Amino acid sequence: MHLAILMTNTDESAFAQRHPKDGEKFTALIRSARPDWACTALSVKDDVFPDDLSAFDGYIVTGSPASVHDGAQWIDRLMETIREIVNRKIPLFGACFGHQAIALALGGEVGNNPDGWVFGLTKADVVDRASWMAPLGDSLAQYGAHIEQVTTPPDGARVLIGSAPCPVGGFAIGDHVFTTQNHPEMTPDFIAALVEEYAGKLDPHVVATARASLAAKADYADFAETIARFFENAVSSPQQANP
Fold this sequence. Notes:
The protein is α/β, with parallel strands linked by helices and about 240 residues long.
């Protein structure tokens, strides 16, 4: 399996340079479950897009501090690329910004979180279990860092993950689209460093809550296996069209 990681993270700060980029983080996540899979990172925020969508078996759209509503040219191009990937039924996974971009590109809506920032370890329920979600329990712990969320899923979407603060925490469309609002690629060390990086930028209560949440760990391995099973199921699905 050869996956393309479409990197949307616009953070080029000194903090970002001290830590693995999202392409590395997602590659580590995928290879923790499937060591023999290949991953190629493409910096779409720098307008680097695949020349041929059929060159990859599947796509991952990463998170970003950018908003899907920013109106940047690369975001518009990403929306067009998402629609083409989905139309061809090439497997597509999105996390955080990627989740929101997929929803917006396909006719859903994205707005502010009613309760403000979600930061640190957050929990949600598996409200509808797709076949590839067998590794997950009924409750899912992931690291989150978002001020926006999907408020209305696209037509035909099946909401799989949700909570009271974030009802559309993840969705699927058929067997070829899967998303999560949170960050399965983040490690405990990285989220701890990120919380401290934002300590002087966010409300002290948000930071204190985030720090306290990190006593527990995210379901990293189980979600890595879930993503791998999603791609395996999607490429074998009769729904997948020939590019």
